[in-house]
Amino acid sequence: MRILHTMIRVGNLERSLAFYTEVLGMRLLRKQDYPDGRFTLAFVGYNEESEGAVLELTHNWDTTSYELGNGFGHVALAVDDAYAACAEIKARGGKVTREAGPMKHGTTVIAFVEDPDGYKIELIQKV
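The structure corresponding to this sequence follows.
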């Protein structure tokens, strides 16, 4: 077994696709409209689905926003340099909610950014 994807619901698919592709540098792997169900699924990631886990962005056509709830934590991405990644994300119009630096009670360098729907993405600097 292996993890295939994590699904998150988004209020505006084009805005979310722009964030994940233009700000975080992922690729749109596939996208499918389901007119009878009034939703679209878009899969984004850094690798092909056969090679690694990806994100499934679900857009229900009649819903423009969601309450995130308190159960979801974040999606984590490995980066070579968290400080440089934050600078690049800001330059691309992204929102950094926790600047790069050592995690509390540890030495791993992390940062957090937020997507247009408010989902948290943790950047973890490779050791």
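The CA atoms of residues 86 and 96 lie 7 Å apart.
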